[in-house]
Design goal:
This protein has 295 residues and is α+β, with helices and mostly antiparallel strands. It is built from eight helices and 15 strands.
Length: 295
């Protein structure tokens, strides 16, 4: 999510003094330490990189103080920055957040917007303060939602659109004063989606399940159980078919339907336990007409 903004800033007339990212993490069976995508991009382009365990670490604070940056643009960093670190750059820390604040403050704004059925989302640049996503706003950019997008698709769109907003904000930072958020517009919170929250309750309406599935795609991915095994649903769509009990699976020649509390859902992309993601119709052909029900 941060790469388009980093690329835009490096390509601009601004000097990128250093890049801050999370520490290298163990991946795969070998547990080999691997840099984040941002960290790898910075290394490939010869940019100094700081990888504190937490932004309060004394070594990081000392390094940032020595760099004396004018501003610290932030995208999807995920750690709370203490006040004495917020005070280091002359123009503060400028955060790019993927919602129209004060709606959806928190870690999963796009996912929550989709799950709530929002018709419009967007991105906001604001000055970072100690309170969660509550700082004064520099600018916004809107993105209309058609009601068919996954969280991954919306995040990809906002990463590009937001990078332009962030660059515009940095360009004008020395002559722009941010505007306090209007909490009267309605503050909503967007906490990280838990695995249990991503579980599909087939008694709920098809439109709600569709939003949950799209909001959880690609992570953590909505799921149910089939014969005691976890079964993930990456994409589905409501169809005007009645007569199926909640959770009842009906394989057809070119599609698979499942009953909900209202009309049916067509399973478009699924991932049975222990297998790769596949088309729902391909999975359905393996049922051979057997009766199946999700729990």
């Amino acid at each position: 999510m941060a790469l388009p903004s980093l690329e835009a800033l490096v390509a601009s007339g601004h000097e990128v003094a250093a890049v801050v990212t999370r520490p290298d993490a163990a991946r795969g069976r070998s547990k080999r330490l691997v840099a984040s995508e941002v960290g790898q991009w910075a290394a490939d382009h010869g940019l100094p990189t700081l990888k504190p365990t937490h932004p309060r670490d004394p070594e990081f604070v000392a390094a940032l103080t020595e760099l004396a940056p004018d501003a610290c643009p932030v995208v999807a960093y995920g750690a709370l920055v203490p006040q004495h670190v917020l005070d280091i750059p002359r123009f503060g820390w400028v955060n790019l957040h993927f919602s129209l604040l004060p709606r959806w403050r928190g870690a999963a704004p796009v996912q929550r917007a989709i799950m709530a059925g929002d018709e419009v989302t967007g991105a906001t640049t604001f000055r970072l303060v100690r309170e969660l996503d509550a700082g004064p706003v520099y600018g916004t950019t809107d993105l209309a939602l058609a009601g068919t997008e996954t969280a991954g698709e919306v995040l990809a769109a906002l990463a590009g659109q937001g990078s332009r907003l962030l660059l515009d904000t940095i360009d004008a930072l020395a002559i722009t004063e941010p505007t306090p958020q209007d909490d009267a517009d309605g503050v909503t919170l967007a906490p990280k989606i838990t695995v249990e929250e991503a579980r599909l309750d087939w008694g709920r309406p098809a439109v709600e399940l569709d939003r949950l599935i799209r909001g959880c795609s690609p992570e953590p991915m909505a799921w149910t159980t089939l014969d005691g095994d976890r079964f993930k649903v990456a994409l589905a769509r409501p169809v005007d078919v009645a007569g199926l009990a909640p959770g009842e699976v009906r394989p057809e020649k070119r599609r698979v339907l499942v009953g909900t509390g209202t009309t049916a859902l067509e399973l478009v992309r699924v991932q049975p336990q222990g297998r790769k993601e596949m088309a729902g119709a391909d999975w359905g052909r393996g049922l051979h007409g057997a009766e199946s029900r999700f729990a």
